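Q: Here's a chain of 84 amino acids. Please give me its 3D structure as tokens.
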Amino acid sequence: MKTQILTGAALALFTLPAFAQDMEGDMALDTDGDGMVSLEEVQVMYPDVSQDDYAQADADGDGLLSAEELDTARADGLIPADDA
């Protein structure tokens, strides 16, 4: 039992900083926490992002941006690179 508690504490120690970094990074736009970014979530932070730019960023056409699609959209200038 003691080993399980120590193992859990060690995992938390090493994984929480990575989780916090992700939440402060690109996926900070994900306000509902579903792991994807909708047009509405983008437009709250960046009202000038058009539906056409968003659709171009949505490479798989599912209506949501994954972290990878968001990174690409930022690199391509479709969505601003800063979250502030």
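Q: Can you summarize the key feature?
A: Residues 2-24 form the longest helix (23 residues).
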